[in-house]
């Protein structure tokens, strides 16, 4: 499935914090990233969405300099993170999906230990977050709940006020209260101060809630990368009724997904409303309702269409 061409944002030009061009990565015969290009500007909250195994974590690891690109380039603050790890990582905060924290340390010990690596560490801010997150000061990491581990990991990632915050599935496995605490801290403590956030998630509701820009990765490829407003303007959801359903409809170029509901169909098209309505009418459909789709509709539609067209490739 080819990438959808979206118009560049009309927002004023901001400093480019992260630029990835034509990045490719294999693990053995498995293609994890396939000619990926994205650009993230200062102050943006950039949501990276895709199925588990779509390539999101692999992309983040390239940003951190963990992997060397096979082809293409990665630049963070204009620097190659592989060649200049100290200059890059000193300005980056990172929360991993696995929450890899030393289990034997107590919470306060880990905070003090981590602070030594960052000259700009704000201990007052760290203490404020610890109180807000209700983290047990003297408890060992091994005794923390999954939600407490995520909150501690976020505290460690943002207490030095990073210019770029990378969050890999920050809400994975958390209850709704813990999810809300983490998302609120990200928006209030980072984005509102003009810092930049890139986070991956398969939870589409939280991506829509806090993101300015969204990039969908599927089978290691970028399907689209644009503002939420622009993405929604480029897709249309049509409910139509038929005397006889046209078998050719699902194969139409702009049709992403068709869900049949008796004599009615729910059709997702990758075109503006006027064009979408005209395409359905050409198929002799009677329009019942036209609406802007949710991100969830677009994501599910593309995943299902891709599977119908040729099955899944192996990605990481």
Overview of the molecule:
- This protein is α/β, with parallel strands linked by helices.
- The chain folds into two domains: 16-231, Rossmann fold (3-Layer(aba) Sandwich); 236-291.
- 31% of the residues lie in helices and 28% in strands.
- It is built from ten helices and 13 strands.
- The protein has helices at residues 56-63, 85-89, 107-115, 123-132, 146-158, 176-189, 204-210, 228-233, 273-282, 295-310, and strands at residues 16-27, 30-41, 45-49, 71-76, 92-95, 164-168, 196-201, 213-218, 221-227, 236-241, 255-261, 264-269, 286-291.
- The strands form three sheets. Strands 5-6-7-3-8-9 form a six-stranded mixed sheet, sandwiched between helices.
- Strand 1 and strand 2 (30-41) form a beta hairpin.
- Helix 5 runs parallel beside helix 6.
- The protein is elongated.
- The two termini are 18 Å apart.
Short description:
The protein is an alpha/beta fold and 316 residues long. Helix content is 31%, strand content 28%. It contains 10 helices and 13 strands.
């Amino acid at each position: 499935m080819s990438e959808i061409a979206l118009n560049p944002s009309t927002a004023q030009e901001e400093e480019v914090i992260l630029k990835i061009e034509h990045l490719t990565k294999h693990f053995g015969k498995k293609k994890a990233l396939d000619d990926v290009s994205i650009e993230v500007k200062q102050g943006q909250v950039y949501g990276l969405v895709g199925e588990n195994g779509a390539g999101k974590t692999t992309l983040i690891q390239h940003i951190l300099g963990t992997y060397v690109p096979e082809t293409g380039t990665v630049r963070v603050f204009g620097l190659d993170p592989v060649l200049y790890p100290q200059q890059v990582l000193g300005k980056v905060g990172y929360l991993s999906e696995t929450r890899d924290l030393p289990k034997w340390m107590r919470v306060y010990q880990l905070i003090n230990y981590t602070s030594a690596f960052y000259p700009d560490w704000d201990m007052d801010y760290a203490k404020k977050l610890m109180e807000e997150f209700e983290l047990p000061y003297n408890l060992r990491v091994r005794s923390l709940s999954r939600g407490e581990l995520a909150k501690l990991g976020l505290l460690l990632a943002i207490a030095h006020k990073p210019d770029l915050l990378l969050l890999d599935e920050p809400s994975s496995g958390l209850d709704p209260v813990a999810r809300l605490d983490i998302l609120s801290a990200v928006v209030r403590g980072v984005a509102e101060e003009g810092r930049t956030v890139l986070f991956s998630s398969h939870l589409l509701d939280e991506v829509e809630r806090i993101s300015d820009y969204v990039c969908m990765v599927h089978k290691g490829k970028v399907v689209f990368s644009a503002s939420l407003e622009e993405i929604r303007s480029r897709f249309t959801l049509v409910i139509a009724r038929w005397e006889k359903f046209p078998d050719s409809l699902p194969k139409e170029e702009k049709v992403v997904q068709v869900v049949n509901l008796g004599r009615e169909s729910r059709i997702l098209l990758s075109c503006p409303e006027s064009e979408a309505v005209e395409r359905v009418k050409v198929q002799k459909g009677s329009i019942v309702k036209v609406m802007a789709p949710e991100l969830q509709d677009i994501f599910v539609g593309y995943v299902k269409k891709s599977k119908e067209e040729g099955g899944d490739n192996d990605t990481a």
